[in-house]
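QUALITY CONTROL LOG
STEP: pairwise intake check
CHECKER ROLE: data steward
CRITERIA: each record must contain a sequence immediately followed by its structure tokens, with no blank fields

ENTRY 1 OF 2
RESULT FIELD BELOW
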Amino acid sequence: MGGRIALTVNGLAHALAVPRDAPLLNILRNDLGLNGPKYGCGLGECGACTVLVDGIEARACVIPVGGVEGRHITTLEGLGTLEVPHPVQQAFIECQAAQCGYCLNGMIVSTVALLRRFSRPTEQQVREALVHNLCRCGAHLEIMQAVRRAAELTAAAAT
């Protein structure tokens, strides 16, 4: 197994006895009980498993847990709470930007990463940021609206 792996997930330190080559997604879901990141394709192509690693979006299904030891991982659960959602989560709620909701983890986490890079992203920047997040339900118009609203809410929260 290779000893214990030290992870910081959503601000909490964990020391886990897991195989170093196990996918981060499996550890998050099975060992830490975090169900925000979803298993979609298992190839890093659909975006359902997206998390932030040191603030950068990453696909948890293709990253070995040993590769993120000592780094800060943020999942959907680490962004906000039911009582005080993150501005991006609030925007997706307000805009009803979901049908089945399976893609929302990736859409929201990717939007958080986008808004850290560009506070007022252009439509082209939004499209590029979300191009690898697949929504099979076709809620793309609502998702685009939610990203624009998230930019407004994030800007308002910063003032």
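ENTRY 2 OF 2
RESULT FIELD BELOW
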Amino acid sequence: MPGMPEMLLIFGIVVIMFGAAKLPQLGKGLGEAIGNFKKAQRDAEREISQAGEIDATPKLDRDQDHKS
């Protein structure tokens, strides 16, 4: 994990590259992206758990069908 000097250096580079006026827009965009990612992850986990409940029904064995 980067320490305080490394974080300040990264922040300084970002300010130089994008300008201080663009930082709020960049922060907002990053926050929205993280929020969308977390929402998609929750939705995927919910779908997987629901699929697990549905697939709990017993399935026929294919070998039994061929032995008849």
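INTAKE CHECK: passed for both entries
DESCRIPTIVE NOTE, ENTRY 2: The chain has a mean pLDDT of 83.
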